[in-house]
Structures are given as structure tokens and as C-alpha cells.
Amino acid sequence: MSFQFTEEQIKRYSRHIILPEVGGKGQEKLLKSKVLVVGAGGLGSPALYYLAAAGVGTIGIVDFDVVDFSNLQRQILHNTERVGTPKVESAKMTLEALNPDVNVIAYNQRIHKGNVLDIIKDYDVVLDGSDNFPTRFLVNDACYFLGKPLVSAAILRFEGQLTTFDYRDKENSPCYRCLFPEPPPPGLVPSCQEAGLLGVVGGIMGTLQANEALKLILEIGEPLVGKLLVFDALTTEFNVVKLRKDKKCPLCGENPTIKELIEYDQSCDVHF
Amino acid sequence: MEEIKIDRELDLKGEVCPFTFVKSKLILEQMEPGQILRVILDYKPSVENVPKSMREEGQEVLEVKQIGENLWEVIVRKVR
Lengths: 272, 80
Hints:
The complex is a heterodimer of chains A (272) and B (80). Chain A is α/β, with parallel strands linked by helices and 272 residues long. Chain A has helices spanning 7-12, 14-18, 23-32, 44-54, 87-98, 116-120, 133-146, 176-179, 192-195, 199-218; strands at residues 34-38, 58-62, 103-107, 125-128, 149-156, 159-166, 227-232, 237-242. By secondary structure, chain B is of the alpha+beta class. Helices cover 30% and strands 32% of the residues of chain B. Chain B is built from two helices and four strands; from the N terminus they run βαβαββ. A four-stranded mixed beta sheet of chain B has the order 1-2-4-3, with helices on one face. In chain B, helix 1 (19-29) crosses helix 2 (44-56).
């Protein structure tokens, strides 16, 4: 094994290298790893920040939105001057300024049936920080078909949820559709825009997503597979609920009915 | 005393904590178990910290010795 760290990299990553579980070997893994983050918003901001700081060598970001004043209460990658700028561009600027080791690939596009597999296929880990069900189901199904680990988080009001689906091990990992077989009818689940959100909840859950991604890359600890972590900001409590693989799951069950990508309608085209 | 066969030597004069350990560890990671690294230090706190951290990582510290004015050597055998 041989490392080619520059003097600057040795200093930048020294706190990682000191850790017995990481070391130069782990840091090299991070620098060679590729992580895709769907959504450069409330979850994506902290997740992307920490992934870039950690030296994840290639970071893909998918978002088709532009920075809006209403984002700045929580989406810490962006700032006031960047209102009106595409989020992926703003994110790229912030991350490259933080760590020049990172190659940021910006996908300034809506994720759809036609591009999702192509975007995801080269990445080692996918983080879902999207704000709508059609995207969540599409990203989930694509990760499942491609056998990519998916770290999924969601936030609303004062609550956050997190779980990891490890589709490299489909036999043992439940999937998103074991939890939610289909998108809810439009209007049933309120969006952040309708229901509100304490900004810091995105910070907490997005940071936990980054933590899951780093563990998967470093192959340390235990990923949150088969478990759903629920965070309540009002009581500052974390609860872990067991997730079981559903034999009747339409995607990963014994008799799957979903064998190709499905594009659901976006019920209302609001941007968060 | 038996002569210790040094496989690699690392001159860390001018380096301070924690980089004395970080750089020693990076070299040791690239060596084979059983091989021996000699580190030269001129920063006094590192003379305690490098051996301590090496032991915490499960490496074997063979010698910590002053070899000159403000100059020390730490000899470590890579265990894992």
C-alpha cells in the first residue's frame, strides 16, 4: 500500500488519519469514493458540506431548482447573494471553496425515468434528500435495480426520519417500498411549504445521512439497515423502529410486480 | 543488546503534534507487519505522544531515547 498525500492533505485530514478506524487507508478510500446527493436543499446542504469536508473525492448533486430567499432558513450551502442561481451551481461553489480535492459534478436537471439510471450508475452511495414522492420512489427503484446503497432521510415540522437501504444485499435489506408500497394520494402528506419545518432538523438529519455514507465507504460500524431512526426536535429524542422486509413488497418481495422504473405524477409543482 | 534492524527512517525535525504521529502512522501503514520504523523528533511533547498513540494503535514501541540536544528517536515495530 502506498499513499500519495500532499502536505496540505495530511494536515486537512489529520483528524481522520489519527482515528484507528480510518487512517491513511480510510482517507484514501474516501478520496476515491463517489457519492451522489439528490437535492441540494435542507438535507443535502449539511450532507454535502460534511462529505466534501471529509474528502469524498467525487460528489454528484442533482437539483433543478434555483436558490430562493425561502431556502436560506435552512439550506446552508447557499447564501443571500446567490438567490436566483441554480442550486447545484451555488452548491458547487461552496464545496469547491471548502475543499479543492473534491470533484463536484452538478446535474442541473429534474430527475426522471429517462436519466435516473444514467446519473446513479457510477456512484458508490446515493443520498436522497429530495422533497417529493415521485423523486423518492424513482431514486429508490433505480438504486434497487442498480444495487446501490441508498441513505434516505425526510424532514417535516419538528420531525426527521432516517434509514439506509443496502441494495448490495437485497436478500437482507428492506426497501423503501416495504415501508411505503406506493406514493400517498396527492395532498395527503403535507409538504414543508405547507406544514413548515424547523430548519435545524434538516441540519441534524442531513448530517446523519453523511455519517451513514462515510461509514458505508469506510466499511466501519453498522449502517442503519432494517431500522428507521425517528428524531423529535421538540423533545430531543431519537427512537429506532425496526423495519422488516415485506414478503409482499411490490419491488423486493417474493412476487414483485415492479420490474421497471415508474414515473409518478408530481401532484403540485411547488419547490422547497 | 541486540542491534535493531531499521527498515525505514522518518526525520520529523520541525514537526509538531499531532502531525508527528500522523506522519509516522502514514509511513507505518505502508510498511509490512514486523518491519521497524525509526522516527527522529525534536519536539518534546511528541516524544511522549507518538509512543503513546502508537501503543494505542496496537504497535510495539521498542525504544524511546534522547540522541542529542533536543533530539530524540522513537523506534516502533509494526504489529498490525
